[in-house]
Design a protein that fits this description.
The complex is a heterotrimer of chains A (626), B (99) and C (164). Chain B contains three helices and no strands. With 99 residues, chain B is mainly alpha-helical. Classes of the chains: A mainly alpha (626), B mainly alpha (99), C mainly alpha (164). At the B-C interface, helix 1, helix 2 and helix 3 of B face helix 1, helix 2, helix 3, helix 4 and helix 5 of C.
Chain lengths: 626, 99, 164
């Protein structure tokens, strides 16, 4: 158990914030796109160094100590109502490293990938990147639910801004709004749960809450509901079924953004939150079982959808959803450490895969895998990097994916959740299969046309050095991480109570998936089309292609609810509100017409009025006086 | 006769004058009705003055008469002008202020 | 039956009859003449109330002046081509009802009020008393009255002018 220095953590937090402020508030800086980019990269690089220093300089602490530093935000009579600060434990330190590293690499990569963007647009891009880094770091360092929620929303905002970066594309704009809406649904549950928890305990602070949980003071009515609502936030943010539909569409954003936000960092915030607040979730065992089940189902469903995708980024997106399911399943099984480990490893190799896909897309000028092929011969380094990522994702030792995936499976098995285990095992097989399919289609299949086509001229493929370099670096990091984990496992530091056959099973599933994918798509044995025609695979495939009807369901509900509501309001507006106004005005006009007849212009008629008035006065004086 | 008798007489003349004002078609006829009403008022004033022993009522009545004369003069002048302009003094036809 | 009572009843009948005639006669000239009768009858009522000065003023100004003016006005506003100045009344019932209602209201007030039954002390020479009052407490009002009459005169002159 280690704790880091709050001062260093604050520095890490402040650096991207500074970059964001400068780029946002100094128009000349923003308009000069590359300069803004360099500033962002410099800030991020410095932040990474400070994060590494914090990691290396972390001091040991006891389990009872809660290494948080807070300041009062909303004062109240009985202690502060809300606090802000930093909580720098080992989980936070690890996340700091991950976020700053991947952000740095992605920003460097973006200099090359987004080189065609006009200056002001590029400046806007880097401003958003810096804001995102700041938000994610603030989320990770949050010592309480309230600060976490604030940064949660900020991160969601950055996601919206970056998905819809090319806002003049209608599909991008729609995808951004969809992402925002769906995650907002989850966030509603999140904030409700947080506030209810505060209502019951009077605090948002994690340390306080964990202490209360330890003392058994949190056995309150409705804790299950509260924690379920809090979990809903994670369902939305981490794309669990059924709120996963926004993640594939979020691929409308630039690929580096997908790598950073929708693979390594933002989507993992949900898992991070569950891991962070695990002592609270542990008080509701039924909820944990639900989380595990939802995670397992998400994993399998997403894997099936990845098998029928033709867009390379969408394959990776579904893969991310699937892996997020893995992480949540582990958390639900009580193996929070395994979940977090998989979060970290997945962050690294998924970012690698996405950036590699970015290179592929850059080369082929299309996302459609069936229009690619034969890239291996032309750009073997790219193929190598992408291959490393694929093997890591499939779970081949000594790469890190193998160890973290095995930890997840072990945790689920140990918790006695057999059916989720089966689902996850099947998912592991499918993961290896669809990734191999993707690799074969992109790198090894016979190219139909395009830059990698062999017929005719043989001009060299130009892969920008920065993109290539970052991919190679990430591949090396992946291999290095895998090596470190292998060493740890050999020394026996790993999970000692996983059954021996588990390792063999996970390895077998991975190899089997790769083999099937290779033979089906490279050799044509069995022919993929005939394989897909076999019942029940054809039915599953058809359903998967339609996203299991979820998108249609949401669209229908949304349309029905919104349009229905607006029709009701429209009717009310037209007939009730306008009706009242029209009636009032009509009555006024009619009253005016009637009263106008009093104005005859004849003096005698007015004298009648006078006489009547006198009469009334007489009567009133008589009766009033008596 | 007690005071009430005079007051009743005045009230009757007033009512008759009011009737004339309300029903006469000719503008001059309306003015005649007004004359009757003012007359009734004068009777009232003098009767009260006599029965209360205060000469103020007589002075008031005198003033009323003087003002009435002025009013009749101006009023009839207006009627004559209207006749010159519109060739009629029938009250029913003088409705230019009609809304 | 005192003389005053007999006189009162007689003059009351005359006054009421002539007033009714004023408002009911179709012929406007006749109405003016009846008005003159009622004005004289009112003067006599003043006499009965021991206000001789006012009797004189009534005859001079009202019966003399006002009636003359009205006659002139009638002559000037009717087409004098042998057409009798006939007219009918409008909305007689409504007017009668309203007038009767007002009458009832006023009488109602009369009946509930407390009025002195007997006449109070009266100066021997009421005219002198009126004169003293006019130059005494009511001097300003008297002067204002003069101003009013001048204004009325000017107004009437202005209205009556011809446009040349």
């Amino acid at each position: 158990m280690r704790a880091g220095s709050p001062a260093l953590a604050l520095t890490v937090l402040a650096l991207p914030f500074l970059a964001w402020t400068l780029i946002a508030l100094v128009p000349p800086l923003r308009r000069a796109g590359r300069v803004a980019g360099l500033l962002g990269i410099a800030a991020m690089g410095a932040a990474f160094i400070v994060a590494a220093l914090a990691w290396l300089g972390a001091a040991p602490r006891t389990a009872a100590e809660h290494p948080a530093v807070t300041w009062t935000w909303i004062p109240a009579d009985a202690g502060a109502m809300a606090t802000v600060g930093v909580l720098v434990d080992e989980v936070a330190l690890a996340m700091l490293l991950l976020v700053t590293l991947v952000s740095l690499l992605v920003q460097v990569y973006s200099l090359a990938y987004m080189a065609d963007e006009p200056g002001p647009s590029l400046g806007r891009y880097y401003a958003y990147h810096s804001l995102f880094a700041f938000s994610m770091l603030g989320l990770v360092l949050a010592p309480g639910f309230l600060q976490m929620f604030v940064f949660w929303e900020l991160v969601g905002l950055c996601s919206y801004l970056l998905i819809g970066f090319w806002y003049d594309r209608p599909s991008a704009a729609r995808a951004a709004v969809k992402a925002f809406w769906i995650t907002k649904l989850g966030d509603l549950g999140f904030i409700t749960g947080i506030v209810m928890l505060w209502g019951a305990t009077g605090t948002f602070d994690f340390g306080e809450l964990f202490r209360l949980a330890g003392q058994g003071a949190l056995a309150i009515e409705g804790l299950g509901t509260i924690m379920f609502l809090v979990y809903l936030g994670a369902v939305g943010k981490s794309a669990q079924f059924p709120l996963h539909v926004w993640l594939p569409d979020a691929m409308e954003g630039p690929t580096p953004v997908s790598a950073l936000i929708h693979a390594a960092t933002m989507v993992t915030a949900g898992v991070f939150m569950v891991v962070r607040a695990f002592p609270l979730f542990a008080l509701v065992p039924d909820l944990l079982v639900l989380i595990a089940w939802v995670g397992a189902v998400t994993a399998l469903l997403a894997a099936t959808m990845a098998c029928v995708e033709s867009d390379v980024k969408r394959v990776l997106a579904y893969s991310t959803v699937s892996q997020l399911g893995y992480m949540m399943a582990a958390a639900g099984a009580g193996a929070a450490a395994a979940a977090f480990a998989h979060l970290l490893t997945h962050g690294v190799f998924k970012a690698l895969l996405f950036l590699g896909a970015g290179v592929v897309i850059h080369v082929f000028h299309t996302n459609d895998m069936f229009r690619m092929g034969g890239l291996w011969r032309r750009a073997p380094w790219v193929g190598g990097a992408f291959g490393v990522g694929t093997l890591a994702l499939a779970g081949i030792p000594p790469l890190p994916g193998f160890y973290s995936k095995e930890a997840v499976l072990g945790g689920v098995l140990e918790a006695g959740l057999t059916w989720p285990f089966v689902l996850l095992a099947l998912t592991a097989f499918l993961t290896a299969f669809y990734m191999t399919r993707a690799v074969v289609l992109v790198f090894f299949a016979r190219p139909h046309a395009g830059p990698a086509a062999g017929h005719g001229h043989d001009h060299g493929l130009h892969v920008p050095a920065l993109m290539d370099g970052v991919c190679r670096l990430l591949a090396l990091i992946t291999i290095g991480l895998g090596g470190w984990m292998t060493v740890q496992a050999l020394r026996g530091h790993g999970d000692a109570h996983a059954p021996g056959w588990l390792m063999a099973l996970s390895l077998g599933l991975a190899v089997g998936g790769i083999a099937l994918g290779w033979s089906a798509y490279q050799r044509g044995v069995p022919d993929p089309r005939r394989l897909a025609g076999v019942i029940p695979l054809s039915l599953i495939g058809a359903a998967a292609r339609r996203g299991y009807g979820l998108d249609a369901l949401y669209a229908g509900l949304y349309r029905a609810a919104l349009l229905g509501f607006s029709r009701v309001i429209g009717w009310l507006d037209r007939y009730v509100v306008d009706g009242i106004l029209n009636a009032l005005s009509a009555w006024t006009l009619r009253a005016g017409d009637v009263l106008r007849r009093l104005q005859t212009g004849l003096a005698q008629d007015y004298l009648y009025g006078v006489a009547l008035g006198v009469l009334v006065l007489l009567i009133w004086a008589q009766w009033g006086a008596s | 006769m007690p005071l009430n008798a005079y007051l009743t007489l005045a009230a009757l003349v007033f009512a008759i004058g009011l009737f004339g004002v309300l029903t006469r078609r000719n503008a001059v006829g309306i003015l005649l009705g007004i004359e009757l009403m003012l007359n009734a008022v004068n009777i009232n004033l003098v009767a009260f003055a006599r029965f209360h022993g205060d000469v103020t009522g007589l002075v008031f009545a005198l003033f009323t008469i003087a003002i009435t004369v002025a009013e009749v003069a101006v009023g009839l002048a207006i009627v004559i002008v209207i006749f010159r302009v519109r060739r009629t003094v029938e009250a029913d036809h003088l409705d230019l202020l009609r809304g | 039956m005192t003389a005053e009572t007999v006189g009162f009843w007689g003059i009351a009948v005359v006054l009421l009859a002539s007033s009714l005639a004023v408002v009911l006669t179709p012929n406007l000239f006749h109405a003016v003449l009846y008005l003159a009768v009622s004005l004289v009858a009112t003067g006599i009522v003043f006499l009965l109330l021991e206000a001789p000065f006012l009797f004189g003023v009534q005859l001079l100004l009202y019966a003399g002046g006002v009636v003359t003016i009205v006659v002139f006005a009638i002559m000037l506003t009717e087409r004098l081509v042998g057409e009798t100045i006939r007219q009918t009344n409008r909305w007689v019932i409504n007017g009668a009802v309203l007038s009767a209602a007002v009458l009832a209201g006023v009488i109602g007030f009369l009946l509930r009020g407390e009025t002195p039954a007997a006449r109070a002390a009266w100066p021997e020479d009421s005219t002198a008393a009126v004169g003293l009052a006019l130059v005494g407490p009511y001097a300003v009002t008297f002067q204002l009255l003069g101003v009013l009459l001048v204004a009325a005169l000017l107004g009437a002159l202005y209205f009556a002018r011809t446009d040349d």
